[in-house]
Each structure stands twice: as C-alpha cells, then as structure tokens.
Design brief:
The radius of gyration is 16 Å and the shape is globular. It contains 5 helices and 11 strands, in the order E-H-E-H-E-E-H-E-E-H-E-E-H-E-E-E. The longest helix has 18 residues, at 39-56. It is of the alpha/beta class.
Length: 195
C-alpha cells in the first residue's frame, strides 16, 4: 500500500500502540523512529528523520505519526462522518495532517498542521531545508512559546516553490487511551476513554 510513501512511527518513551503497529504493516515502507522525552530532543529527532528521508530514500513523501496516535479505519470513520486516517495519504497537497480526536475539552493544534500525524512531500521538505522542526521559548528560555507544529507550518508556508504551497487537513486520527469512538447527540465524533 502507498509504494511511494515512507511511514515513520515516532516513538519516544511510549511504545507504539498495537493498533498503530498493525495499521503500519500495510505500508510498503515503514519504520520506527525513536525520540526522547524532552522537547528539544524531540525536535532534533524529527529533524534527523527528515534528513534521513531526504538522503536515504527516493520516495515522494514522508508521513510521521507519533506512537500514541490511533488510526481511524474506514468503517469507524464512515459511522462518525469523518475521513479515515489513510485519507491523508491520498492528498495532493505539499503537506497535510489529520484532524485530531482527543479527550473531551482537549484542543489540539488549531494553529496549523499537527506534527503528531504529519505528511510532507519530498519537494516541500527539500525547499524548506533544516531545521524543519523547532520549539520556541521566551527570552529567558524558561517557557515554551511555540510548538514544533507551528514552527513547521510557518516554515512550510514560507518555502520557495514554483507553485503555491498547499497545506491541507485530511483524514482523522485519535489519541491513545481511547476505549471507543461514537457519534454524540449532534453527530460529531465523541470519545470514551479507557480508565
């Protein structure tokens, strides 16, 4: 499946969940990519992954998914009226990320693309150049002011390509710890988290 795409599961202190690993085995090219606990280390490991992808593969796109994400299959997506996770691989945009279903009240990355489930074309990554990911801090370097997702989105929008940059949200992914996903009274995706 998706022979021109590299899937990488970004695994930090948490091991990938079984659903994500099973889903990943359907891809022709997939691998685990270890990271660490700290923000700067995570950004450095994401940057190392992109550098490896550009130097060691000739594939058209890189899809990074964090180990604590749970793919939404087509049947569940149809019940919820959302796109399945794999719909992201079908986008023609330069970069995209999945819609995110989190814990009730949780807002995730409303400011741009989400690095937890991010697909980017080789063309865009090469045009951006390093660093692709970075966390921003205040002047004293004591408080986080910008996540790596916002940094990537801003850099992607500023990349110099012959065609206008296309960024897209497609498909849906959920956060680990989910017991069930179901439509709420208004028909929107709702989540029952396992204790």
């Amino acid at each position: 499946m998706f022979p021109n795409l590299q899937l990488a599961i970004v695994s930090g202190p948490m091991r990938p969940n079984a659903g994500l690993l099973t889903w990943a085995t359907r891809f022709d090219h997939w691998r685990l990519w270890p990271t660490g606990r700290f923000e700067d280390h995570l950004a450095a490991r994401r940057n190392a992954l992109v550098a490896w992808f550009l130097a060691e593969t000739d594939l058209a796109a890189l899809w990074m998914i964090d180990a604590d994400m749970v793919p939404i299959d087509r049947e569940t997506a149809l019940r919820l009226g959302v796109g399945p996770t794999e719909a992201l691989a079908e986008t023609s945009a330069h970069a995209g990320s999945c819609r995110y279903i989190g814990r009730p009240g949780e807002v995730a990355h409303g400011h741009g693309l989400a690095a937890g489930c991010l697909l980017a074309s080789r063309v865009l990554l090469a045009a951006m150049g390093p660093p692709w990911f970075r966390f921003g801090y205040d002047a004293d370097h004591t408080a986080l002011t910008e996540c790596e997702c916002r940094w990537f989105t801003r850099r992607a929008r500023g990349a110099k390509l012959a065609l206008p940059i296309q960024l897209e949200t497609a498909g849906t992914i959920a956060h680990a710890g989910i017991g069930a996903i179901y439509p709420d009274a208004d028909g929107r995706p709702a989540v029952l988290f396992a204790p």
